[in-house]
């Protein structure tokens, strides 16, 4: 089976920009021929790159998140943009529930307990029940809703914050994130990263969630004021955290490494073979559709 970059290479002239050492020189020599950019969760098309590519027609991102693409610039230039929604929703929602269980039931710590032979010296300490805990979700889009559905099966009361109240759900709506945090035991970040949602988890929200509260972040690192989160966890002002994303990936604050109430994952929300294949198919399908003048499969712009 061909890898996704082999498939791209079969159909297009592919430049692996991330591995080109002298990017400025490369752009200078090739800028006129580049008509498409393939991005992902860590690199997309910012204003500078868009500006350097006069014939750019489409940005096709191997991610649902669009925060690495300057959408306003794309719109201004008439550049099409696509992402990979829906196909990754289940995986990301599964992982959010996995993080809740892992933090509350101390799954990673228990595993280390067995491997290191400590079990022979005594039983593992008691942990905290997940079923029935109240779950607050920031962002009730596709992924937020999928998390809510799963948490409902664990008999968790669900509440949420979003820009506007949804008329088609029965979950309790909080117009303020601080109020949501004060009224739930597990707070999940599941919204898109935009200028409005950067640092949506700040000191006030963390303090409202409190020393028994748990933060789950499957969104983006910059949703959280990371130094504030680290100090709250170190000082015991927050009960725990399950984090799949960080401010400066792959760098993770080392103060977190020694904390047992924290589970740290390397941004793997959509990281299954099945889903990554569906995402790659969408990226390639969108590019093909564009260059054949057919309707895009998952257009953003
Ligand atoms: O983080 C992953 C994505 O946006 O798809």
Average pLDDT metric: 97
- State the end-to-end CA separation: 31 Å
**Strand line-up in the sheet with most strands:** 6-5-4-7-8-9-10
Oligomer: single chain
Q: Which runs of at least 5 residues are low in confidence (pLDDT < 50)?
A: none
Shape: globular
The helix/strand order is: HHEHEHEHHEHEEHEHEHEEH
Say how many strands there are: 10
Given the helix and strand composition, which structural class is it? alpha/beta
Count of DSSP-assigned helices: 11
From the alpha carbons, calculate the radius of gyration and give it in angstroms.
21 Å
Percent helix among the residues? 25-40%
Sheet with most strands? 7 strands, parallel
Indicate the proportion of strand residues: 5-15%
- List ligands, each type once: glyoxylic acid
Overview of this protein structure:
It is a single chain. By secondary structure, this protein is of the alpha/beta class. The chain is built from 11 helices and 10 strands. Strands 6-5-4-7-8-9-10 form a 7-stranded parallel beta sheet. A 3-stranded parallel beta sheet has the order 1-2-3, sandwiched between helices. Strand 8 (about 215), helix 10 (about 225-235) and strand 9 form a beta-alpha-beta unit. Helix 1 runs parallel beside helix 11 and helix 5 packs across helix 7. The two termini are about 30 Å apart. The model has no long low-confidence stretch (mean pLDDT about 95). The protein binds glyoxylic acid.
Keywords:
alpha/beta, three-stranded parallel β-sheet, single chain, seven-stranded parallel β-sheet, 301 residues
Set down the secondary structure blueprint.
Layout lengths: L3 H8 L11 H8 L5 E5 L6 H6 L5 E5 L8 H7 L2 E3 L6 H16 L2 H9 L19 E4 L3 H12 L4 E4 L10 E2 L3 H6 L3 E4 L13 H7 L4 E4 L8 H9 L5 E4 L18 E3 L8 H19 L10
Parallel strand pairs: 1-2, 2-3, 4-5, 4-7, 5-6, 7-8, 8-9, 9-10
The structure holds glyoxylic acid (GLV).
